[in-house]
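Re: beginner question about structure tokens

> Can someone show what the tokenized structure looks like for a real chain? I only ever see the sequence side.

Sure, here's an example I had lying around. Input first:
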Amino acid sequence: MSDEKKSVFNDDMPVTETDKKSLKNDDALQMNESEKGEENTECETESLNSSENGGTSPAPETETKDSQKKGVDDLAERMNIREKMRRCLNYCGWTFIILIISWFTLSFFTIYIPFTTEYYMFFNELSLGIAILISFCFLKASSPKAPFQKKKVPFNHIMMLTSVCIAVGYIGNLISSQFIAFWNVFTNSNVTNEVSDIIMNIDLVQNFLFVGIVAPFLEEFFFRKLLIDRMRPYGELLSVIISSAFFALFHMNFSQLIYAFGVGLVLGCLYYRSDNYIAVTALHSLFNIVMGVIPTVFYGKIMQFFIELEYIQESSERFSLFREYAVPLILYAVYAIAILALVIVGIVVFASNVKKVRPIKSEYPLQAEDYRFAVLKNPGIIIAAVIVILLTVSSLFV
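And the corresponding structure tokens:
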């Protein structure tokens, strides 16, 4: 017996076939016991989880139904928001139509008022102010204003944006002038910038008062405060583009169409991000004064100088003419250099900041197809666009 025990426990002794079978059976028994222990542990874990969940485990079918119901609710909410956006844009379009019709009607009646020609700008802005008041009453009753916290705009930001507006205005005016020149040659027409002709033939006081102050005050109230305040919940891109397009078409001539749209984008972005009516009106006013009012100071003298210069052949007489018009010529040269410098500054400011500016998205979960639906299937927007586009095109044939 002692020898057999040695053969089992001593590694130096050979192991028989019987010993091998007994060892395999012992290992199998141990594995079965360990597997039973793991199964018991898993059962205990499942029972503990089920007891914590109230004795029941969630069914996969219930989770699927809940996710489907949530998807349906989200889609219904999105469709509801899309319809609200469409109605809002529809009211804005009809408000713009009311503005145009009211303004044209009032302007027609002012023709029969004495001294209308002499005080053209006064009666024109008065008619526009009454038309905006009528439009305001309609829009206020039909579409409420979206709440937004007003922000301060630093003075240096207004000055930088003024240079950007001047750059946009200068480049846009060059493009429009080339288009009108081509149109005149191609059609043998004589289309001019009627607004510039009117401004240049009105005295400085009226220009400063109505072009530099009253017009920006009225136009910013309608195109920025009234329109953007209603479209604000649906994102910066939609609000600024539609208000700028209406602002450009509102001028109803190709001379101002391109630069008015570009300047409108700058004004719209400033108002959308600040809700500061005073700041955006000040920016618009500075642009009008620099680009529209100041040139009238010496424009008449400069034109008279070139007319007289055309008929003078003698060099001595030309020298005398230069001395006579020295002051307006120097002012014109200084103004031209200043405008060129502001254009360069504006381009630099725009180029250095354009990548930093990202459009503020809508507060609602809207997609591109929702915006297309709200704009393209909208009678107010479409009819307003057709009316002012036809009026703008007609300016080329008058």
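Each token stands for a local structural state, so reading them left to right follows the chain. The chain is about 80% helix and 0% strand.
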